[in-house]
Request: fold
Amino acid sequence: MNRKLTLAAFFIIAAITTFAYYNYKYLSSSDHVVIEEQGGIYCMNTSRDVFYISDKDYSILHKTKVNGGWNMASVRDGKIYVAVRGDLSRAGKKVAVLRDGRIVDNIELEYPLPRIIKFNEYNGKAYVGHILITGKNYITTIDTKNDAVENYFPYNYNIEDIAFAKDNMMIVSSWTSKSNTFKIDIINLDNYSISETIPINFKASSIEVIGNTIYTVNGLSSEPILYTIDWNKGSQTLEKIKLKDNYPCRIYKNEINGKPYIYVTHYNIDDMSGESITLIDPERKAAIKRLDNAQHSRDIAFNNNDILVGDRVNDRILVLNNDKIIHEIKLGRPICIVKSKV
Reply:
């Protein structure tokens, strides 16, 4: 009998020790905060499942649901912010914080319907653009170190996209239906004032900034054109770069051997067609390559020399290397892809 009791006690102690070890390894004492950090790729699909994917072998490590999720941004310390816009039954009013594939916090916002979230690499803060309601709109500033709202300021236009430049400047493309006005505003983040407005005659649906140059595309046109504007000199510097395909959709920035390049995805939202990405050399202000096999993709991300392409027709991510498909990940229709910053 004593021997049986001794064996039982041994197994109980072993089980408790094992549970304590894994609980310490993966969770903190509060709300599933992950202790171990590792870099990874995040993809959100139309069902609002967020997949956490290994950046080593592209295996799916974890899946979590972010109800009402709309847009994602990679911030500091391996964290991902998800703007929770909500759905038809309930407006969203928060930003979900993910780390190592799990929700570790929620940032409650002052104003509802967050639509766009971008990380400012120059000051380490995140900025949220909301949806215009009854003529009022706001941009919220989040301290990404503490995961807390730092400030918000009125910006009463429909916000299309947000980018950042040195000297604490934010670039916002927006429009208003009342006067059929399209513009790009340069906002000084020291005092949240508009230092300059650049009027344009098209909806700048996606923007990026390298140096003093704003890169943008016309979201209402199928023409293979990328526009450039010197934000120090205004709309009189607007130039056109001929792209490799029609239907430019979104603009991305990535470095190759320390030099920044612009990538433009080609995607027709009406029939979900598209099969390429145009690579732009900012120094030459020219399209230098057509990247093939980017099938039905609006959204992309970068993992070293690989490009991750969201195939919206075949419900998968394609991994491209040297224009060849080297891997695919089936996970539903992707709507946003980002890689975490460790």
User: Anything to note?
Assistant: Residues 46 and 333 are 6 Å apart (CA to CA). The helical segments are 2-26.
